Amino acid sequence: MYANIKETGGFVITINLYYTGKNGSAREFCEEMESSGIADEIRSESGNLRYRYFQSLSDPETVLLIDSWKDQAALDAHHASPMMARIASLREKYDLHMSVERFVGADVNTADEKFIRR
Questions:
Q1: Residue 38: which of 91, 95, 74, 101 has the closest Cα?
Q2: Tag placement on the chain: N or C end, fewer CB within 10 Å?
Q3: Which H helix or E strand runs over 38?
Q4: What does the domain layout of the chain look like in residue ranges?
Q5: By three-state DSSP, how is residue 64 classified?
């Protein structure tokens, strides 16, 4: 379940990272992140709310990572951790290119609820 502002006491920061490679390398990168335990280590970091990979149906060479953090301090701590060197090394290994989108959460609009089937 995705946390909202009321649950975290601040603005949730969500980063969409699009990893693009060749010949399945983006998917292989994600598989190694999972099998090596790096992804689980990130999920257990203080302030991490979500860390999940998604495969594109229209572009098999691109994988989306949705990475959400409680606040900027938690994200800054993650970026300053030794974990980032391990991730950078794997990005190099698989020759990945990235594009990034950043979103800061806002109050939940209850009017949107009528469009969500639970």
A1: 91
A2: C
A3: helix 38-43
A4: 22-106
A5: strand
Give me Rg for the CA atoms of the chain.
15
Residues in the chain: 118
> How far apart are the C-alpha atoms of 105 and 3, rounded to whole Å?
10
Architecture of domain 22-106: 2-Layer Sandwich (3.30)
Question: Is-contact 15 101, C-beta < 8 A?
Answer: yes
Separation between Cα atoms, residue 36 and residue 83, nearest integer Å = 12
User: How many other CB atoms are there within 10 angstroms of residue 11's CB atom?
Assistant: 16
Question: Quick one: tokens of 97?
Answer: 């290119």
pLDDT per residue as tens digits for the range 72-115:
999 999 999 999 999 999 999 999 999 999 998 765 667 777 77
